[in-house]
Design brief:
mainly alpha; Helix Hairpins; 2 domains; 6 helices
């Protein structure tokens, strides 16, 4: 009877060890896929966004410039703003981007558009 219990405990430990190894491998794969720096940076560069400027923007007094986020001048027409917004939504949306890690940029675009919408009093 005692031998059965010991066997079962050893089998449970073996199974738990395999599960732990599988989960660790799965997490490693997930993290590697979620942020592949090369593909993400290449994707951002293809969109015309210069990430090297991000450190210069942090802590600046002028704050978040929604037009700069969208890559437009403040004099852009309403139609140009809406068109650029739609283009960026399609490019950055997780279902259509083709790369992972665009969520932060998508949130920036959404916030920028919302600021412009409020500023221009769009419904």
């Amino acid at each position: 009877m005692e031998e059965d219990i010991v066997k079962r405990l050893r089998e449970q430990e073996r199974i738990l060890g395999e599960m732990r190894d599988n989960v660790q491998g799965w997490m490693d794969d997930l993290l590697r896929d979620a942020f592949n720096p090369e593909s993400f940076l290449r994707y951002v560069a293809d969109m015309g966004i210069d990430l090297s400027q991000v450190p210069n923007l942090v802590g600046r007094g002028d704050g978040f410039d929604p037009y700069r986020v969208l890559g437009l001048e403040k004099t852009a027409t309403d139609e140009a703003v809406k068109k650029r917004y739609r283009e960026l939504l399609i490019k950055l949306h997780p279902d259509t981007a083709g790369v992972k890690g665009t969520d932060f940029l998508l949130q920036m675009v959404l916030a920028a558009y919302e600021m412009i919408r409020v500023e221009r009093k769009w419904q």
